[in-house]
Amino acid sequence: MESNETSNFESNATALRLSTPNSVYSHDIPEPTSSSRLFHVYYNTCRRNLTITAEDKAPVFFVKNRSLISGKNDVIFYAGQHESDPTVAVCKFRTFSADSKVGLGDPDEPNRMVWEDMTKETWNNSKYRWEMTIYPSTTDKMTVTSHGERKGFVWKRTHNVGIGDSMPRWLSARNFKLEDESTREIIAVYSDNGARSVNKCGKFQIDVDYGKDFDTMVLITGLALLEKERRRRQSGGKSG
């Protein structure tokens, strides 16, 4: 039942492949490639929490967005369909700052967590930067013998880059493209569903194969930006 895209995503649990981005772009519009993967994002009943599925709609992550005043991790990824499934990534919004801490792993195992910073680069919340180490041969972050390669990535709000026939609404603040900081190539896109469906939030297209951890970072940083935007609307635009 699983698609080739889902199998490719899951196979990264045993092997990361450091490769040159295999994307084709024409005038800033990304086209699907052999490396492209789609992830769909759906609202749960309360509409605060989310479910991420692979292209064949098989569940990949349950996403919990905590309340504005929880004082805990603000965005939590569980590997499966429920909050009882293993925690695989978290994002914590810093107090009195627009920056965030993003962690891969389970906070209950702090020695195995890998933390990265996501920083706001523009006053109007249109650009956020993060980086991570891309490893060439293994997904086990604690036993890697290679030092890997540090790469920087930038989420930029977009009004003209979509996925397939889905183009952003001009007034929407919830559409983003992810660029490789060194090459400025678009390597991922988030397209918001807007009012087209009451159940679907949007979808991601990732066009490079840097492994499962990279996919997780793309998804959690992208959804963290959406959660920040939701909170800004709730607070009248005052939060970061």
Largest sheet: 12 strands, antiparallel, barrel
- The name of the CATH superfamily reads LURP1-related
The class by helix and strand makeup works out as: mainly beta
Proportion of residues in extended strands: 25-35%
- Can you tell me the CATH topology? Porin
**N- to C-terminal distance:** 41 Å
The level of helicity is 10-25%
Task: Provide a count of the helices.
Answer: 2
Kindly report the average pLDDT value: 82
| Main sheet: strand order | 3-4-5-6-7-8-9-10-11-12-13-14
Q: What is the H-and-E element order?
A: HEEEEEEEEEEEEEEH
> C-alpha Rg, in Å?
17 Å
Unreliable stretches covering 5 or more consecutive residues: 1-27
Number of E-type strands: 14
Number of domains: 1
CATH class: Mainly Beta
**Oligomeric category:** single chain
Overall body shape = globular
CATH architecture descriptor name: Beta Barrel
Protein name: Tubby C-terminal domain-containing protein
Organism: Elaphomyces granulatus
What would your notes on this structure say?
By secondary structure, the chain is mainly β. The chain is built from two helices and 14 strands, in the order αββββββββββββββα. It has one domain: LURP1-related (Porin, Beta Barrel), CATH 2.40.160.200. The strands form two sheets. A twelve-stranded antiparallel β-barrel has the order 3-4-5-6-7-8-9-10-11-12-13-14. The protein has a two-stranded antiparallel ribbon with strand order 1-2. The chain is globular, with a radius of gyration of 17 Å. The N and C termini lie far apart (41 Å).
